[in-house]
Amino acid sequence: MTKQEALALLGVNGVELAGLLGIEPSAVYQWPEKKIPLAREYQIRDLANGREPIKHQTVKA
Prior knowledge:
Lambda_DNA-bd_dom_sf; Cro/CI family transcriptional regulator
């Protein structure tokens, strides 16, 4: 999936997509244009299908 396909699929811009994924907008803008990271693609497909994407959870000591 390209970055443009991801944005179009959800009808959002990069900042909005970052918010949906729980990441910083700068991370989205660093993705390659031709192929986004596979884990992010799965999260975006979950969002497109109306499911909550899996998010990384930090463990507090």
